[in-house]
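Hypothesis: this fold can be encoded by more than one sequence.
Test: take the structure tokens below, design a sequence, compare later.
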């Protein structure tokens, strides 16, 4: 993607505000999980590996086209690049099915681990990554809405998403009880976690290091020196975030600050966050 035409953080937020409520329009789960599936989930296996989403190839590419249309409408200068990116996608049903399976496999985890990109490094790679990544997010957000009826987050209490298995990208301190809820940046699921301890390495650290942003006390960052990770947090007593996925994008400058201090985040590749330094955004949320 040409450096002069890359998205700024505000541009990415604007796109997500337009697409965030998009619905796939068809059930992604054909059968409600039974006792055997619930037992597997209780043992620590996320739903996406037990009852994976079933989406038609045609429907998935319609989601990609919807995202592409929004990008072209909001950012006409990128219209040609979007068109080129779409043209680089597979066209036959079998190749599209293989592509869809690869894209879904990238975000279906048991332990929160990240996988590599679904496209090679080429001129259109960054745009294709953004379009397909956003489409997967939208599909899994729909899937997570269906999965929400199957479980109580208080029975999970693990550091990975109960729905898709990814690490949290954000957390919130909620209400007067100050309960800590983790947030998945892939499928949008919120789930309860202990106030004490690191969700990444599960070290039980009673006094975690805490950074509060000067001039914006609603944001704080907890860091773990055991695994050198960090977790951005919003205090809902000070502000009600519109959507934590958007909050995560808008606070990428915090990721850069923590990375500069030697910390890392398992849901945010460090090389993607470095793009913020140049006023550009990574290719996915």
């Amino acid at each position: 993607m040409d450096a002069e035409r890359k998205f700024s953080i505000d541009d990415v937020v604007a796109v997500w505000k337009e697409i965030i409520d998009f619905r796939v329009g068809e059930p992604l789960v054909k059968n409600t999980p039974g006792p055997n599936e619930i037992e597997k989930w209780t043992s620590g296996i996320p739903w996406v590996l037990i009852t994976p989403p079933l989406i038609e190839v045609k429907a998935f590419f319609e989601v990609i086209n919807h995202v592409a249309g929004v990008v072209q409408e909001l950012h006409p200068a990128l219209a040609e690049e979007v068109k080129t990116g779409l043209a680089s996608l597979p066209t036959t049903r079998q190749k599209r099915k293989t592509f869809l399976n690869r894209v879904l496999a990238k975000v279906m985890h048991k332990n929160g681990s990240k996988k590599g990109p679904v496209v090679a490094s080429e001129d259109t790679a960054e745009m294709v990554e953004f379009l397909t990544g956003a489409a997967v997010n939208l599909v899994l957000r729909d899937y997570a809405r269906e999965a929400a009826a199957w479980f109580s987050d208080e029975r999970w209490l693990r550091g990975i998403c109960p729905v898709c298995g990814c690490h949290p990208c954000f957390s919130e301190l909620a209400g007067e009880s100050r309960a800590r809820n983790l947030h998945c940046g892939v499928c949008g699921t919120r789930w309860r976690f202990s106030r004490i301890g690191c969700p990444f390495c599960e070290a039980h650290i009673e006094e975690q290091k805490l950074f509060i942003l000067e001039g914006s006390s609603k944001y704080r960052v907890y860091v773990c020196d055991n695994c050198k990770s960090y977790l951005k947090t919003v205090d809902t007593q000070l502000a009600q975030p519109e959507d934590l996925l958007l909050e995560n994008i808008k606070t990428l400058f915090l990721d850069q600050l923590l990375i500069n201090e030697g910390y890392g985040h398992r849901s945010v590749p460090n090389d993607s966050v470095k793009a913020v330094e140049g006023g550009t955004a990574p290719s996915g949320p």
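The two ends are 17 Å apart (CA to CA). Strands lie at 168-174, 179-184, 190-193, 209-212, 219-224, 229-235.
Hypothesis status: open.
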